[in-house]
Amino acid sequence: MTVEELVEEYSNMLFRICLVVAGNEWDAQDVIQDVFCRYIERAPVFRDSAHERAWLIKVAVNRCRDIHRFRFRHPQADLDEISAYCELPEQSEVLAALMNLPESLKSVIYLHYIEGYKTAEIADMMGISLNAVKKRLERGRKALRLTLSDE
User: Fold this and answer.
1) How many Å apart are CA 60 and CA 143, to the nearest integer?
2) What's the pTM?
3) Alpha helices in the chain (DSSP H)
4) pLDDT by residue (tens digit) across 48-78?
5) 132 class by beta-carbon count within 10 Å (0-12 exposed, 13-18 middle, 19+ buried)
6) Last residue of a domain, one of 73, 99, 133
7) N or C: which end of the chain has fewer CB within 10 A?
C-alpha cells in the first residue's frame, strides 16, 4: 500500500480518535501528521492490515498522550486571561512580548523584574551560575527591546 492510499484509508479514523484523545482539532491534526511521518521514516513491516491499523492507532494515541504530558509539565496561560490583570494598555504589550520569549529567558526576566529577586538568588533557585543569569537577563532585555521596537 502506498503512503497516499494509507492516508486515504486511515486519516479520517485517526482524526476522530485523536480528536477525542487530544481534545482539540489542532492537536489532532498535528498528531496525524506526526503519525504518517513516523510511518514514512520507519517504514515498518506488518503481518497484515489489522496489524498496520493497530500500529497507526497506537502511535496516534501515544502521541496524544505525549502532548497531554507536555502541557501538564509546561502549562501556558492564555494571554487574554493574563492581560486582564494589566492596568495600562502598554503593560499588555510588554506582557505579550515577555510571553513569547524562550522559557529560559522568560523565567529569569520574570523572577528578576517582576518578583524582584536578585541575580544570586535566581542562580540558586534555578541551579545555574551567576554569569548564566546575567547573560540570560541581557539576552532577554535585548529580545524584549527588539520585539517592542518592531511594534
Assistant:
1) 37
2) 0.53
3) 3-22, 25-42, 49-73, 79-83, 89-99, 103-109, 119-126, 130-150
4) 888 888 899 999 999 998 988 887 776 666 6
5) middle
6) 73
7) C
